[in-house]
Design brief:
single chain; alpha+beta; Ribosomal Protein S5, domain 2; four-stranded mixed beta sheet; 4 helices
């Protein structure tokens, strides 16, 4: 991988994950978590963020999907942080309001180094495919804290849980892509503190 890229390997008693991420990619992905819907969401994340992403996860799916989804969020967040380096010249903020059929979701990110995650989502189905709906938030929470992101979601409308979740992943990808874009007029970190 070229450009701003990183590889992370994470192994616990519950999961083993390898992630390779290129922030300056073209949206190519190779995803295998053993959770079909989650693979679909991570593919959408890569494609709509124009990130090149390879992610392989072997987890304790005999328990449930929680550990695999959460640890994938941690590993991907770590790779994101590593790929960004000193964050020099990045736009830092990004947002996207994304429609998907009856659904409308807003995602806002700040690559501030101060992690926070809030999501106002109404996922009425307990599962989406083979993924627990509650794991959607756990992924974004894990990613935001591992990467040092301030991350907010607002669901303006939506009824179909698949549409809501997919709108979140796509909006997150586009907001993050905007936030990591380089602003050539900025020298160093775009912060009054001098660092992010």
């Amino acid at each position: 991988m070229t450009g701003r890229s990183a590889t992370v390997h994470r192994k616990t008693k519950e999961t083993e994950i390898t992630v390779s991420l290129n922030l300056d990619g073209s949206g190519k992905s190779s995803i295998n978590t053993g959770i079909g819907f989650f693979d679909h969401m991570l593919d959408a994340f890569a494609r709509h963020g124009l990130f090149d992403l390879e992610l392989n996860c072997k987890g304790d799916l005999n328990v449930d999907c929680h550990h695999s989804v959460e640890d994938a969020g941690i590993a991907l967040g770590q790779a994101f942080k590593k790929a960004l380096g000193d964050k020099a010249g990045i736009t830092r903020f990004g947002n996207c309001t994304l429609p998907m059929d009856e659904t409308l979701v807003l995602c806002v990110v700040d690559i501030s180094g101060r992690p926070f995650c809030a999501a106002n989502l109404n996922l009425s189905s307990p599962k989406i495919g083979d993924m627990d709906s509650q794991a959607i938030y756990e992924f974004f929470y894990a990613f935001s804290y591992a990467a040092g992101l301030n991350l907010h979601f607002l669901q303006h409308r939506g009824e179909n849980s698949h549409h809501i979740a997919e709108a979140c992943f796509k909006a997150f990808a586009r907001a993050l892509s905007a936030a990591v874009s380089i602003e050539p007029r900025v020298d160093g970190a775009w912060s009054t503190k001098g660092s992010l």
